[in-house]
Amino acid sequence: EPEVTQTPSHQVTQMGQEVILRCVPISNHLYFYWYRQILGQKVEFLVSFYNNEISEKSEIFDDQFSVERPDGSNFTLKIRSTKLEDSAMYFCASTLWDRVGYTFGSGTRLTVV
Amino acid sequence: AQSVTQLDSQVPVFEEAPVELRCNYSSSVSVYLFWYVQYPNQGLQLLLKYLSGSTLVESINGFEAEFNKSQTSFHLRKPSVHISDTAEYFCAVSASGSARQLTFGSGTQLTVLP
What is the C-alpha separation between A54 and A52, in angstroms, rounded? Predict the structure, then answer.
């Protein structure tokens, strides 16, 4: 069964550093997403991406965040200057336009120290 | 905007007993409804979904959920649980139409006891 692949599985970074979280969505999917889950809290939507541009974003997705699909297969989330409160599990997801179901990756646990 | 309420944060149940995990939603527009399961140290796996048609939807591992529009609910049920069903279960909703963001509930930890 096709999978969404996320790397790394765990990343530790110092506050103020830039991090890039990487995702390889399912190859024929057209919509791509990032969600995050702070420990003990709900899974929260960050951003959706379609046709090489952001289609929706939440209030969480401020100027410190950016997304990119650099080469037609990878989908990345960049956090420019990490804060302690960015520590969370970050999930990538993808879906076809006809809503067969969002497929999530296994997540990257980001720890900011 | 949509919101999801999962009333029970923890549900312990004995093996082979039935279980119901409750989910209520609110939305001003038509919605699609989903249940996701998260096993320890793993990602979110789609368990089942309601998009349209029959209000009762089933998964391949014996779970079912019923969309009740009048009660704005999408409760998840299984008649007989196994130890392997121990996991966190998330109800989620999206506005119907083209692919949209999911809004998640806070999750229910199902623990199946021997």
Answer: 7
In whole angstroms, give the CA distance from residue A41 to residue B19.
23
B25 touches A: beta carbon within 8 Å: no
> Any chain B CB within 8 A of the CB of A99?
yes
B68/A60 Cα distance (integer angstroms):
32
Q: Return d(Cα A61, Cα A63) in angstroms, integer.
A: 7
Q: What is the pLDDT along chain B (114 residues), one digit of tens a residue?
A: 889 999 999 999 999 999 999 999 999 888 889 999 999 878 889 899 998 888 888 888 899 999 999 999 999 999 999 999 999 999 999 887 766 788 999 999 999 999
Please tell me what DSSP assigns to residue B84.
Answer: G
CA torsion A68-A70-A74-A80 (nearest 10°) is -40
Q: Which of B19, B29, B24 is nearest to B7 (CA)?
A: B24
**CA A69 to the chain's CA centroid:** 11
B42 CB neighbours in chain A (<8 A) are 106
Flag if A104 and B105 touch (Cβ within 8 Å): no
> Chain A: nearest CA to B98, how far in angstroms?
6
> Which residue type does B40 have?
P
CA of B82 to nearest chain A CA: how many angstroms apart? Answer: 23
